[in-house]
Amino acid sequence: MKDFDIPDVYLAILPCYLDDYGDGTELIDLNGNVSRIKCSVKSCLKKTLKKYAVDLSAIKEKYAKSLGIKNTFPIPLARNFTLVQLKSRIPKVAKDVSYGYVCYEKINKIEEYSTYCVVSIGDSRIKVYQKKITIEKHLRDAAMMKTFFANLSPLNFESDRSMYNLPATKADIALLYEEIVKIKYKIEKI
Fold it and tell me: With the CA atoms of 36, 1, 85 and 77 taken in that order, what torsion angle do they form, in degrees rounded to the nearest 10?
């Protein structure tokens, strides 16, 4: 079912096994309704990225090193729609996807149990096979990425100079670090 239209905003897209099909996706919409789609999580994510005109590889290339994020990269799509990658199943076959994408802004609570955590998103609850400390790290990364993108706005140097007197955020420091690394690289090439 490759022609499925993915909604603009959702709570989560999670990998699942579908009877008589195999690897599919569970989509949880904003109302908490669950739909099972005969489509991979990767395909659903690609449709979402295309809908928002986001180039994930370019974002990773530009910001991964400066933000110190290697894998499980948060995906900022809109002001209130950032996707966080969480391990939501234990695969039956080695190459099956185990990670799904959850809306960062809708996460309410994380409860830790012995072998998994339960993440509350809106009125839905998702079982995540990661430690609470790992999930919280992913949420911090998402918050940092969100702050970084919130600070990117067109600059009007003439009308508002008060913004330059504000304290620097982590995103500001990350941007400076990235620029310093670029300058250092250029100097070393000479």
Answer: -110
Helix/strand/coil for 36: strand
* Average pLDDT over all residues of the chain: 84
| Tens-digit pLDDT profile for residues 8-47 | 889 999 999 888 788 889 999 988 899 998 888 999 999 9
The β-bridge partners of 78 are: 81
CA-closest candidate to residue 7, choices 98, 103, 99: 103
> Looking at the chain, how many residues does it have?
190
Q: 94 exposed, middle or buried (CB, 10 Å; 0-12, 13-18, 19+)? A: exposed
Q: Give every strand in the sheet of 81-87, ordered side by side.
A: 34-37, 22-28, 12-18, 99-103, 81-87, 75-78
Is pTM, for the whole model, over 0.85?
Answer: no
CB 98 within 8 A of CB 137: no
